[in-house]
Fold:
Amino acid sequence: MTPRTPGSSLNKSALHREQGRLRRFRRILPSLDLKRRQLIAERSRERTALADTEKDMEELTRQVRRELPMAGDDSLSLEGLVQVSTVELGERNLLGVRLPTLEAVHTQTAEYGTLATPHWLDSYAERLREALELSVQRQVRRERLHRIAVAVDRVTQRVNLFEKVLIPRARENIRRIRIHLADGERAAVVRAKIAKRKRQGVAEG
Structure:
C-alpha cells in the first residue's frame, strides 16, 4: 500500500495518481481508527473481567480458610479429590479477532465413603469444583486479553502507518508535483514571451 514516490514523472497523470491514493488513505483511516478504539474498549472490559475472576478466586480461598480450616489438616489426603474432566470451548469473532468462549467446565469427584470421611468433605469438594471452574475461566480470560492486546498493537501500527507515513508522503508527493508543474508553466510563459519578442524584433527589422 506504500505509494510510489514521483521521480521523473512529475506530470498531471502522476498528480492524479497521488491524489487518488490520498483520497483512499483518508477513507481507510477513519474505519481503522474506529476499529482500534473499539478494540481498546474491549481490552479494558476484558481486563476488568479478568480482575473480577481473580477477586472471586481470592474470596473463595478466604471463604474456605474461614469456614473449613480443618481442610488444612495434613493427616487427611485430599489430593485428586476433584479434577477437571472436560472443558467445552466456543469461539466469538470480534472485529476479526477470534476469541475463545468458555461454554462449560466438567469436573469429576473421586469416590469416598461417607462413613469413613469427615462430614465437611462434601462442602470442601464443592468449593474445589468452584475453584477449578474459576481457574479455567481465568485461563480463558487471559487468552482473550492476550489476543485482543495483539490485535490492538497491529491496528495501532496500521493507523500510525497511515497517519505518519502514507498520508504525509502522498501530500508531499502532491506538493512536489504541483511545484514542478507550476515551474513548468512559468517557464513556458517565459519562453512564449521571449519568442514573441523575437518575432516582434524580426518584424520590426
